[in-house]
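#struct-queue
[09:14] JT: dropping the first one here, sequence first, then the structure tokens:
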Amino acid sequence: MSVAGGVITAPSYNGSDDRVVLPGFYLRGRLGGFAFSTRGTNFQVDLIRQKRGQKTDLKFGPIINLRSDRTGRIKDAQVEALGEKKMAVELGFSGGITHTGIVTSGYDQVGLRVVGLKDISGKHGSWVLSPTVDYGTPLSKRAFIGVSASVNVYGKGFGRYYFDIDPLGSAASGLPVYNRAGDKVTAGKYTIGLAGAYGLSGDLRKGFVLIGGAQYGRMLGRYADSPIVADAGSADQWLGGIGLAYQF
């Protein structure tokens, strides 16, 4: 079991050039042979039991996510004039494969996972598909480093709800009318991340662990062209965080 808390600095909304500081929380564990974890605002369960010592681990299970984009903390006056969004509840699946013992040692890992989410709350009424590849390796018994890369593919309704601007919104905000984000399914953002951990007790597997990470994201195509990003925000999206975990 691992539990962690810390602070995160992130854009105030997806595509913003203003930043907010938020509390962060992480939980990971195993119950009855089934792994569970949180990642951001989602909670997921792996329904495939992993046997101790196996090198290849298949993962598949349900995931639920709360999307709070533009539900508050909007610092840009023009985007705020468009009105706050309602929190979306998304349900879907998380699946992937991880293999241990690849390059540097018998303990490094490479993984491929895909997360698919569908809005079940009637807010954006659409879906998000996110394939991710990651690699991690221990540097010693007390230090670990990992890298990841992912892309978000958005359904039409997602673009219409979060990035298009209708005539009423344009009149209220001064931003131009925009309707291209919801025209078609497209890749709207990619991210590249770096994370590290350092065991304060001398062993990453138990006791207190210092954790940290940074992520660069880039809005793409029709999403980057939205006035919410191009005029009032930025296509470059930086995120960073630091915290303390306890392993037991």
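[09:21] JT: and here's the second one, same format:
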Amino acid sequence: MLLPRIAQARDQRPLRVMLLGQSLIQRAICDDGWPGMAAIAALLRRADVVFTDLETPIEGEGAGEPTRSDATLHRAPPAVLDCLRALGVTLVTTANNHAWDLGTGGILSTIDALDRHGIVHAGSGRDLDAAAAPAIQQTPHGGFALVAAAAGAIRPGAAAAADHPGVNELRRRDDGSLEPEDVARVLAAIRTVRASGATVLMCLHNHYWEPVQSDTPVWQKAFARACVDAGAAAFVGHGTPAMQRDEFYRGAPLFHGLGNFIFQTRKADGAYGASAWQSVIVDARFAHGRFVDARFHPIRLDATKRGEYSSGSPELVPSGAL
């Protein structure tokens, strides 16, 4: 695995990273703005790195026909990336069950659009090596690396292979255990990029849900700990439209489910409970490749329909208001 040279830290202060829930953004809501937009952007722009899950493929030349025909189809124009950039987003995972909603061409058009917009990304690629490779954002405090994978609801054709674009899939076997080959690939990527000197974030988008969505699967907890053992400074989970309990392991936070940051769904009003419309922004600090501390900024999302989609826009709320 050939990695770019990691810049040495020029600033000895801790690296500040904002960790967000998933961004299901299908229209450029920043054009019109919303109450609370300025406060969200002001907070995020204080960070060196702002991370989210891009929960939609980006339309563009070569994107295929929709591979879904229902209300769960996700697709967005490139302008949504301008919106994310305006809010402060610098780093995204593209490993999720919706990455293939516009087919293999949509995987590639998304990668191309992110590159044009200068947003660092990991989790999908032109082949499996590229999809599994860490992405590194250079900062004055040193490199910050993302390794990303998706588990569950990855349809045939969506997973990357040696000769096929797609997402970095973490498969489960019939007995419920994780495919050792996939686990080894993820852990090797973490070890390699950590050895280069970067601070490492591992993100898993999981759709092997428990009967109660707010519960974290036992296997995910074990996998997250293995990622920390391999060198990850923190673990973030996405997938369920609800938050899950956090853990600490060997000084590293395991944020198993951060819920939603932007949630523009086509589904009817009431299709999602209140938990889909509330989350937190994790305001974390790292130094020398390890977690230092974090603050939590609660947010509430607007569930009001705006034409075809819910508004889904976030607003900061006082602690204890949720």
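[09:30] RK: nice, looked through the second one.
[09:31] RK: The first helix runs from residue 37 to 44.
[09:31] JT: good to know. The chain has a mean pLDDT of 96.
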